[in-house]
TrEMBL record, chains A, B:
A matching Pfam family: FA_synthesis
Record-level Gene Ontology MF annotations: phosphate:acyl-[acyl carrier protein] acyltransferase activity
Organism annotation: Butyrivibrio hungatei
The protein's role, per its UniProt record: Catalyzes the reversible formation of acyl-phosphate (acyl-PO(4)) from acyl-[acyl-carrier-protein] (acyl-ACP). This enzyme utilizes acyl-ACP as fatty acyl donor, but not acyl-CoA.
GO process annotations (BP): fatty acid biosynthetic process; phospholipid biosynthetic process
InterPro entries: FA_synthesis (IPR003664), Phospholipid_synth_PlsX-like (IPR012281)
Domain of life, per lineage: Bacteria
Assembly, per entry: Homodimer. Probably interacts with PlsY.
Keyword Ribosomal protein on entry: no
Protein name: Phosphate acyltransferase
Coiled-coil region: none
This enzyme's EC code(s): 2.3.1.274
This protein's encoding gene: plsX
Length: 335, 335
């Protein structure tokens, strides 16, 4: 057997922790032989939770951490002061080479800050973006950056395009994936100062498949594989996805209660509609990777169930097996 | 009879011009006695189109303009060189006091540039934002700015909040409307440099009802009446509305074809669904006003029908009767 891929899980993070984190870890280990999981958190809590399952004892280990960083805590302060928290301890395991990857459904802020400060960036990487997959009519696109580096500069966005290309090629298996920059019009001369500065740099970048600007209205149709933008914009895009979809479904449901005819129709479409909306959901895709770090950091949403925790952990296996960090280093250092 | 409110319509602008612009003008004049419309464009074309209708000859007048600014033309150049275009001529009518307001379904860029350069800003107004109404679960919110001033500064955003307040109070009849700034988190310390600078200014502004940050996911639910943001962000929000809604409807339609049961259901819900989606559509709201100018400039979308042209023209009547420009001037000059 080759060496195991070691994933440090913030077992205390997320709305459903520790139930979902422990169950997700057990399921992940059952599904992949290449994996070892460290459950980082309050020892007695995790031992009790874990005692309900049967699993390969060599491949799940509890690492005690007595503190928990809450969702609302200011991230920088929390990372600095709560040295014995599950987030900080799990991140140091990656930094010290005791784990290859980190997964958390806890505080996004603390994970983003800890990723940059504790795990640390790969040599040559100036900023590490958070890059979730978003659903489109054609499948998925990678939104990079969706929240890690507000007020990024043009050269950062070029690095995002390169890192996104490595991810989509090697994890999603898309050959020569298309890259577009979010803009307020399709023409090259449009945009704010950042986009105007970044556009020619992307255009002249030889090792990406840059196809120009993308207007936000064309993102959900799947016009480009990699959507490059500054983090504030990316966060707005991600949250508009969530907000518009939720609101529209509410409005449709209400509308279908307005006549007997459509009430009956609603009953008939219920199952297929649920399946369709499930496929289009942001949550299906599990965790968002933070790229460009010395190990993989995966942030999965706060309400993650065991399935999403499991998928996020399994993502770490592919990521490590595919040597994404090494490939990112190589691509970033190309001129 | 009191003095008529005079609206200069870019009769050549939009996908359906001049059919929709002429028909919309005839309908608007029939609906409001307080109105006079100038149809600006190619005289012979408009005369021919207008000859099909019966209308009050004193209240629709053709103003000849021999050129047309196309959608794809670079706006600044077009405004400078096509002096005899329908857009430039109609805007000069407002600037010269021959018209109170301007309506166009043509080039957005040329309308935005012309608004600032030709119509001109009210004294004290630093930037004139484009402010469409967007549909929410509760009704409408005003999105300000959605595309006129990329890279705006903090003091501009404060003016947008004030102008939006005047609009929502006087046009939409909302007493003490709530104002929120688009941010990537709800906490005061979150945000990019612009938001961090703007937040305390809005908080200390005595004559608006500022309720703090709004995350993009809460915009469609109707959390705030006035959504303040920089134009690049606003444009992304507006276009995500359009894109996600369109994509989701496509995905749902496709999903409903996946079984016989839901195919039958789909037939039953068809009418109510169409009505519901129509109510939630961005297009229902007609034109977006550009606020803070010496006369009202309304930009309605390129595919406007006669109904939307009519509604945009009638909006000018309310706007002028309510003396919005005077009220904006007064509010902007308050400290």
């Amino acid at each position: 057997m080759s060496e195991l891929i070691r994933v440090a899980v913030d077992a205390m993070g997320g709305d459903n922790a520790p139930v979902a984190t422990v169950k997700g870890a057990v399921e992940a280990v059952a599904e992949s032989n290449a994996l070892k999981v460290f459950l980082v958190g309050k020892k007695e809590v995790l031992e009790k939770e874990l005692s309900a399952y049967s699993y390969d004892k060599d491949r799940i280990e509890i690492v005690n951490a007595t503190e928990v960083i809450e969702m609302a805590e200011p991230p920088v302060l929390a990372i600095r002061t709560k040295k014995d928290s599950s987030i900080v301890k799990a991140m140091y395991m990656v930094n010290h080479g005791e784990a290859d990857a980190y997964v958390s459904a806890g505080s996004t802020g603390a994970t983003l800050v800890g990723g940059q400060i504790i795990v640390g960036r790969l040599k040559g990487v100036d900023r590490a973006p958070l890059a979730p997959l978003i659903p489109t009519e054609k499948g998925n696109s990678l939104l990079i950056d969706c929240g890690a580096n507000v007020d990024a500069r043009a050269n950062h966005l070029v690095q995002f395009a390169k890192m996104g290309t490595v991810y989509m090629e090697n994890i999603m298996g898309i050959k020569n994936p298309t890259v577009a920059i979010v803009n307020i019009g399709a023409e090259e001369e449009k945009g704010n100062a950042l986009v105007k500065e970044t556009f020619p740099l992307l255009k002249n970048c030889p090792d990406i498949n840059f196809i120009g600007s993308i207007e936000a209205r064309d993102i959900p149709s799947g016009y480009a594989d990699i959507i490059v933008c500054e983090a504030f914009t990316g966060n707005v895009i991600l949250k508009m996805y969530e907000g518009v979809a939720k609101s529209l479904v509410n409005v449709i449901k209400k509308g279908l209660m307005s006549s007997l005819k459509s009430k009956i129709g609603a009953l008939l479409i219920k199952d297929d509609l649920k399946k369709t909306l499930g496929n289009y959901s942001l949550e299906k895709h599990g965790g968002a990777p933070m790229l460009g770090l010395k190990g993989l950091v995966v942030k999965t949403h706060g309400s993650s169930s065991d399935i999403e925790i499991k998928n996020s952990i399994l993502q770490c296996v592919t990521f490590t097996e595919q040597k994404i960090s090494e490939k990112i280093s190589a691509k970033i250092s190309q001129v």
